[in-house]
Every structure is written in structure tokens, then in C-alpha cells.
Design a protein that fits this description.
Blueprint lengths: L4 E7 L3 E2 L9 H16 L8 E5 L11 H8 L8 E4 L5 H14 L5 E9 L19 H7 L6 H11 L4 H20 L25 H5 L19 E10 L1 H7 L5 E10 L9 H12 L8 E4 L5 H10 L12 H4 L6 H16 L3 E8 L3 E9 L1
Parallel strand pairs: 3-4, 3-5, 8-9
Antiparallel strand pairs: 1-6, 1-7, 2-6, 5-6, 7-10, 9-10
Helix pairs in contact: 1-2, 3-12, 9-10
Family: Belongs to the thiolase-like superfamily. Thiolase family.
Keywords: Acyltransferase, Transferase
InterPro entries: Thiolase (IPR002155), Thiolase-like (IPR016039), Thiolase_C (IPR020617), Thiolase_CS (IPR020613), Thiolase_N (IPR020616)
Length: 377
């Protein structure tokens, strides 16, 4: 099988709800990232064979195949097509998988994998028909019953199953903010960010947050453990990567920065919804012939604090190597953009620290997960 290489990775800052990016049209937000990717890699954009872009709420300003529209909005060649992918929160990580698979199969040589979401402009849940709020059919109900299926309930179920106290969840959230604030202060993200609309840094981290302030917040559900402080933030952002074959690297004078080692997927209980990173990680490590001790940096999306905490407990990973610069609780989670943003962060952190292997995973609606393992070159 042919190798697939990451030769470029860039992202916008992640803007907070009603923040500095909230007025930027999502097509323009994604177009900015695509332009930055082309500029930074120096690739001939006409040589790109496809643009695969993750986006979850594909309605209104994010409808009509935003991948294609963003490429055209960036002023890039009309000859390059684009396709938009929805695997819920893992949409742009799946875009990376599709791009890598195209290269590994030998049917493509140069593919852009990207993601975008403007949650300020297209709120979460916009794609659900209001007079039909339960989006499942009779056969689904026969299997799982007429019960609440939400990420909020899933997070509470995880906290209960793994016996994670509210205090433990809040300690994790506090650490996420502290790590993110330190990373920004030290300039760790500067090289990977393409500033836009006057925003240069991620807007989400709250370095002045305290455990005492978190303890005062109301839980999202009566008698629950999850609060806004232990949940990912509503955000706006975009990321993009260029995936190339060995032939494309030679033909276009590109520099491989990482090799895609393995790609894995898993499904798990759709009611718990958020647990699939655990079996997906086990599958990916086995396929790669690696142990968790071989992984130098982990990016696991902090949809809610129970997700990384349960994963850490089950996988036995090093907490210091896991989301070392904070995660979505502090930095935000622009749904379809997060996979590409996390991979950009993962690659740059491996380069900054000299690590060899990186692993990325995230929970996704329907009880699914992607895992990507890369090797820095």
C-alpha cells in the first residue's frame, strides 16, 4: 500500500461564541484556511485532486457543499472539486481519513482535508426539523426505545459508569484551561495559526478560572455532574491539511512532515454515545503494532470531561502526554472543524517537542470514533 504524508497543516484561531470570528461567513472562514494552506506549502493548487471538508450543520450558510464553495471563495482553480463530510464531531478527522485513503489506494496523489464550523452563525441543532425533534424512525425505536439520545445524557451516563465525581471533572477542566493559557503565553500555537478578522489567538481559555468558580455553576441536568465548565465550548473555526503521495512529494518539491501510520474506526453504544474512542484506540494501536507507551502526544477531543478521563483510565495513557496544551473545554470545539484543528495541533506539538508518534481520537454522534496515528518525519 502506498504511503500518505502530511505536508501542510494550518488552522484559524478558535473563536468563542459571539467572539471575534462570529461575523465571518463560514465559507469565508474555510476559504481563509485553504488559502493559507496553499500559500504555506507552495503547492500548485491546480494539482489538488479533491477537497474533502468536514462540516456538521450543513444548512443555511454551511449548505450546498461548503467544501466546493470555500475553495472557489478562496479564488482557487475551478477545476478542483470538493465534497462535504458529516461524521458528526469527527467530520474533519474523517476528511483526513478519506484524503489519506485516496492517496494510499493509489487513485489520488494530492488531496486537501479540511473542516469548518461557525456555531455562532449556524447553531448546533440547526439541521433538526423543529416539528420532528426525534430524528429516528420506527425501526430504531424498536431497537433502542423511545428515550433521550443526546450528548449531554451520554456525558452523564459516562460519569456515572466510571464513577467520576463532579469535583474530579472540574479538576480536569481547570487543568485544561491552565495548559491552554500556558501554551498561548509561550507562543506554542503561533506557527500553526493563520490570523483572521483581527483575531490572532484562541479566544476560549480562561486562565483566571478557579475550582471555586466552577463549583458555583448549575449542572446542565437536575442532579447531574456536568456543567458548562466541564463541557466543550461553542466555537467558530477551521483547519486544513494537505495530504500527498510519495510521487506528489517528488513532483511538487514538497516536504513530508508526518506519515499516516494507521486509520481506525469503531462504533459503540449510541445511547452512551461518547465511549467509542476507547475501542477505536485499542483497534488502532493493534493495527499499528504500537503500545500506548509508544505514543508521544495524544489529542482526544474534550467534548465533555468524562470522555478523556474514562479513556485515560481504560487505555492507561500518560495524562501529561494527553492534550498537553489543553483541549476543547478550554480551546473550544467548532464541531466539523475540530478534527482538522486537532491534527494541526498534534503535528506541531510533535515537531515542537521532537516526539515521534501522535494519536488523535474523538467521540462522535451515534456512538462512533475515529483514531488516526501519525509518525513525525
Amino acid at each position: 500500500m502506498a504511503e500518505a504524508y502530511i505536508v501542510g497543516a494550518v488552522r484559524t484561531p478558535v473563536g468563542k461564541k459571539k467572539g471575534g470570528l462570529s461575523a465571518v461567513h463560514p465559507t469565508d472562514l474555510a476559504a481563509h484556511t485553504l488559502s493559507a494552506l496553499v500559500e504555506r506549502t507552495g503547492v500548485d493548487p491546480a494539482a489538488v485532486e479533491d477537497v474533502v471538508m468536514g462540516c456538521v450543520m450543513q444548512v443555511g450558510p454551511q449548505s450546498l457543499d461548503i467544501a466546493r464553495n470555500a475553495w472557489l471563495s478562496a479564488g482557487l482553480p475551478e477545476s478542483v472539486p470538493g465534497v462535504t463530510v458529516d461524521r458528526q464531531c469527527g467530520s474533519s478527522q474523517q476528511a483526513i481519513h478519506f484524503a489519506a485513503q485516496g492517496v494510499m489506494s493509489g487513485t489520488q496523489d494530492l488531496v486537501v482535508a479540511a473542516g469548518v464550523e461557525s456555531m455562532s452563525i449556524v447553531p448546533m441543532g440547526s439541521s433538526i426539523v423543529k416539528d420532528m425533534p426525534f430524528p429516528f424512525g420506527e425501526k430504531w425505536v424498536e431497537r433502542y426505545g423511545m428515550q433521550e439520545i443526546t450528548q449531554f445524557r451520554g456525558a452523564e451516563l459516562m460519569a456515572e459508569k466510571w464513577n467520576l465525581s463532579r469535583e474530579e471533572l472540574e479538576r480536569y477542566a481547570y487543568e485544561s484551561h491552565q495548559r491552554a493559557a500556558k501554551a498561548i503565553a509561550n507562543g506554542y500555537f503561533k506557527e500553526q495559526i493563520a490570523p483572521i478578522a483581527g483575531v490572532e489567538d484562541d479566544e476560549g481559555p480562561r486562565p483566571d478560572s478557579t475550582l471555586e468558580k466552577m463549583a458555583e455553576l448549575r449542572t446542565l441536568r437536575p442532579d447531574g455532574r456536568i456543567t458548562a465548565a466541564t463541557s466543550s465550548q461553542i466555537s467558530d473555526g477551521s483547519g486544513a491539511l494537505l495530504i500527498a503521495s510519495e510521487q506528489a512529494v517528488r513532483d511538487h518539491g514538497l516536504t513530508p512532515r508526518a506519515r499516516i501510520v494507521t486509520l481506525a474506526l469503531a462504533g459503540d453504544d449510541p445511547v452512551y454515545m461518547l465511549t467509542a474512542p476507547i475501542p477505536a484506540t485499542r483497534k488502532a494501536l493493534k493495527r499499528a503494532g504500537l503500545g500506548i507507551e509508544d505514543i508521544d502526544v495524544v489529542e482526544i477531543n474534550e467534548a465533555f470531561a468524562p470522555v478523556p478521563l474514562a479513556w485515560l483510565r481504560e487505555i492507561g495513557a500518560d495524562p501529561q502526554k494527553t492534550n498537553p496544551n489543553g483541549g476543547a473545554i478550554a480551546l473550544g470545539h467548532p464541531l466539523g472543524g475540530t478534527g482538522a484543528i486537532l491534527m494541526t495541533k498534534l503535528l506541531h506539538e510533535l515537531e515542537r517537542t521532537g516526539g515521534r508518534y501522535g494519536l488523535q481520537t474523538m467521540c462522535e454522534g451515534g456512538g462512533q470514533a475515529n483514531v488516526t496515528v501519525i509518525e513525525r518525519l
